[in-house]
Write a structure and sequence with these properties.
About 10% of the residues lie in helices and about 65% in strands. By secondary structure, the protein is mostly beta strands. It has a single domain, classed as Porin (Beta Barrel).
Length: about 220
């Protein structure tokens, strides 16, 4: 984790030195997230309401092109249905769950996005933008709600810690578009839609040789200044 923090600090220092203008902002974004697996015996089981918030920083290299980054607190997750038996480690015990177990992962990440952004010329009060890039996720917390049986007995748990079952680092690509409404010269309300697609395995369960990927649609709302 220290390496990722140092890389992030180095990026901000370099980008600040070469950028022509820096724009900052605060964002708070509801989202719909879900998990998918590359194994047929593990299936996604619905959407999960999630939320992130934090600081956005745009480093402009010309009037309309910038690198956007920031630091976000990301509360996310998804639900997986396991058709085979499952070994699952919580913060205080190891569970061996029967086939048909349902695990709802709740994960908290620190996000460091890095994206290239293109903006239109200002049209009246509005500026339109599109962006694409990657988002780095560093896990700081994880818990699970489990609906399952073990040896014919109810083994369900609610909100038990499960950091050992979620990998420390995750990454995905992001793509999106939106609009900024300038109600003063340098201050704007921003609204956008982003799609994030993970391409690194979220889970670290040793009982399955699978890869689970985190995906979400985000409604981004914020204030730029």
């Amino acid at each position: 984790m220290k390496k990722f923090v140092l890389i992030g600090i180095l990026f901000f220092v370099i980008a600040s030195g070469y950028s022509q203008k820096i724009r900052m902002g605060l964002t708070a974004s509801p989202k719909l997230s879900w998990l998918t697996s590359d194994r047929s015996n593990i299936s996604s089981d619905g959407l999960q309401m999630a939320f992130n918030f934090g600081m956005q920083t745009d480093f402009f290299f010309s009037d309309r092109y910038s690198i956007t980054s920031g630091i976000m607190i990301n509360n996310t997750g998804g639900t997986l249905l396991y058709s085979d038996s499952l070994s699952f480690r919580t913060s205080d015990k190891m569970l061996v769950l029967d086939p048909g177990s349902l695990v709802k992962y709740k994960i908290q990440y620190i996000d460091i996005p890095l994206a290239f952004r293109m903006e239109s010329n200002q049209i009246g009060y509005f500026v339109y933008y599109a962006q694409f890039g990657v988002t780095n996720h560093i896990r700081v917390g994880a818990s699970a709600n489990i609906v399952a049986e073990a040896d014919g007995m109810d083994a369900s748990v609610d909100g038990s810690g499960c950091k050992d079952e979620v990998n420390l680092f995750n990454m995905g690509y992001n793509i999106g578009a939106g609009i900024n409404y300038y109600f003063s010269k340098n201050t704007a309300i921003t609204l956008g839609i982003l799609y994030n697609n993970g391409f690194i395995d979220v889970t670290s369960n040793q009982g399955f040789k699978d890869s689970a990927y985190l995906k979400n649609f985000t409604l981004k709302v914020g204030l730029l200044f």
